[in-house]
């Protein structure tokens, strides 16, 4: 890719996490989390956002995700997303606090309804929309075709391959929740074929709407750097006495767009440098 293809603009804020902390009982898990992500706009293409969260086990990735989806109430701070039901004011979409259901959540197990076929699952996902029966059908069939799921439209989860299951679960969340989706360790435990299949699904989501925003966690640093345009590292800070803290926060943010290494077709030496920086930070966290 040439550098011209890397040209982009940053428009309205699509995610604003403000001084967020979450505690369970009297134990604080994450603290002082501040994240601002903007709508990335590139010429003559739809460009969504892919944000990766890295961090060692127990550093609060899943806890943060539950707060981002509205499943967990923050102890302090808040999570804001654009309120698309309101008109734009002074060039900015008014914001609202996230509520359960605003952000799709895909867990590691790709849980599906046992007694619904792929088609029925997707139809159910569209139940809150104002689309007519025919529009729903057209939308579902369009996605099934795009995502290579046409042939298993009438199958139940037990008869799906791992890859088909993952794509159905991701599609279900995409259709029911709109533009935002959180996936907690979507690549762990997958074989190479299924990893490719989920990567493809990410790309399809990313290219199909300007506002589509995928947030995912992973232990695979290379994969995070390859797929995301923005990467956050969660971890414990080193305290002044050299000891490791016990409440996680964002230790570092890599904006891969700014670094010129987002949306590349191949993994370059610059990506490798970034992987090395991430590893150094994580080892001390
Ligand atoms: N519901 C809960 N109640 C109490 N402690 C919890 C709960 N969920 C997670 N924790 C604790 O919070 C910490 C962070 O967990 P988690 O968010 O799952 O981290 P990660 O996803 O990065 O591995 C861990 O110490 C975990 O034991
Ligand atoms: Mg987790």
UniProtKB/TrEMBL annotation:
A GO molecular-function annotation: ATP hydrolysis activity
Gene3D superfamilies hit by this protein: P-loop containing nucleotide triphosphate hydrolases (3.40.50.300)
Alphabetically ordered keywords of this record: ATP-binding, Nucleotide-binding, Transport
Pfam families referenced in this protein's UniProt entry, alphabetically: ABC_tran
ABC transporter domain segment(s): 15-261
SUPFAM superfamilies from the UniProt entry: P-loop containing nucleoside triphosphate hydrolases
Protein name in UniProt: ABC transporter domain-containing protein
Organism, scientific name: Niastella populi
């Amino acid at each position: 890719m040439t550098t011209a293809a890397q040209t982009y603009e940053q428009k309205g804020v699509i995610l604003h996490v403000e001084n967020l902390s979450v505690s369970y009982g009297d134990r604080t898990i994450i603290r002082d989390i501040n994240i601002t992500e903007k709508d990335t706009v590139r010429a003559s293409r739809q460009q969504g956002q892919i944000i990766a969260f890295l961090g060692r086990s127990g550093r609060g990735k899943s806890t943060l995700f539950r707060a981002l989806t509205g499943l967990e109430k923050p102890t302090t701070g808040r999570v804001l997303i654009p309120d698309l039901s309101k008109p734009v004011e002074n060039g900015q979409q008014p914001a609202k606090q996230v509520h359960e259901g605003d952000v799709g959540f895909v867990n590691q197990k790709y849980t599906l309804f046992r007694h619904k076929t792929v088609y029925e699952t997707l139809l159910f996902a569209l139940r809150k929309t104002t689309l007519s029966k025919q529009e729903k059908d057209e939308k579902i069939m369009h996605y099934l075709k795009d995502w290579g799921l046409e042939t298993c439209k009438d199958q139940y989860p037990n008869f799906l391959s791992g890859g088909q299951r993952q794509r159905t679960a991701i599609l279900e969340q995409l259709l029911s929740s709109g533009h935002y989706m959180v996936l907690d360790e979507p690549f762990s435990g997958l074989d190479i074929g299924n990893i490719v299949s989920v990567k493809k699904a990410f790309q399809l989501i990313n290219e199909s709407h300007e506002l589509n925003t995928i947030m995912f966690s992973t232990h695979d640093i290379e994969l995070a750097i390859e797929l995301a345009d923005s990467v956050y590292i969660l971890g414990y800070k080193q305290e002044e006495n050299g000891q490791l803290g016990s409440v996680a926060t964002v230790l570092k943010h890599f904006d891969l767009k700014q670094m010129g290494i987002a949306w590349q077709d191949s993994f370059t030496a610059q990506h490798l440098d970034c992987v090395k920086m991430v590893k150094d930070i994580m080892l001390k966290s």
